[in-house]
Structures are given as C-alpha cells and as structure tokens.
Design a protein that fits this description.
Structural class: mainly alpha
CATH topology: Arc Repressor Mutant, subunit A
Order of helices and strands: HHHEEHHH
Low-confidence stretches: none
Shape: globular
CATH architecture: Orthogonal Bundle
CATH superfamily: Winged helix-like DNA-binding domain superfamily/Winged helix DNA-binding domain
Radius of gyration: 15 Å
Length: about 120
C-alpha cells in the first residue's frame, strides 16, 4: 500500500515512529514501538536505508547496539509532503502511554495484513 511514490505506508510509519523517539532508537526499541518483529522492522529499515532515508550508527555507550538516524533526505521529504505533520502526529499521540501506542500500532498492522489477505483471495 503506497501513499507516496518512493516509500510505502509501513516505511513512512517507521519514519514517524523514529521521529517520535526522544533519542535515536535501536532496532529492538523501534520494533517494540511499531508492535512488529525485529526481522520485519529490519526489512523496512533496509529499504529505507537503500533509499537514503535512514542510516544506522553504533551507539556511543554500547557498541553492540545500532541506533537509527533520520537523514536530511527524510527531513526534506517530510517538509515537502507533510507540512504540519509533526504537530499533527504529536497531537494524535498526546496523552497516550507508549505501551498503548504499541498495542494500537500492532492492531493496525494486523488489520492491514488481514486486508491484504482479503485482497489476495478476492
């Protein structure tokens, strides 16, 4: 399901989730926020990295961890395609506990998968 020419909804959603984090998240942290598996999030990030939207860097305190950084291309993309999105996204998630956000995200992703199954069968 594409909402933009270059990236999918899932990829854009990952960008939003990364942006919402107080510090650059690890893949594990992002997977928890997105309510998805480490493997699925890694695939999404690989595609975003190939397109120049994110990069991974070693954590300065723990070299075993990789942190996900949004690139200037992402900033430009968001400015061009989604004016006011930061304010809207913050408002959408305002006052909602992080665990609850994760459950909502997990539910939405499952609903999307269910719809994909219907489209494949129908």
């Amino acid at each position: 399901m594409l909402i933009f020419e270059e990236i999918s909804w899932k990829q854009f959603f990952a960008i939003i989730c990364i942006h919402l984090c107080k510090e650059s998240p690890t893949i594990k942290e992002l997977a928890e926020i997105m309510g998805s598996s480490h493997q699925n999030v890694k695939q999404i990030l690989n595609k975003l990295e190939d397109k120049g939207y994110v990069k991974t860097v070693l954590d300065e305190q723990d070299k075993r961890k990789q942190r996900i950084i949004l690139t200037e291309k992402t900033v430009a993309f968001c400015e061009e395609h989604d004016k006011g999105s930061k304010m809207i996204v913050k408002k959408i998630f305002e006052g909602i506990d992080e665990k609850d956000i994760g459950m909502v995200i997990k539910t939405l992703l499952q609903m999307e998968k269910n719809l994909e199954d219907v489209n494949e069968k129908g």
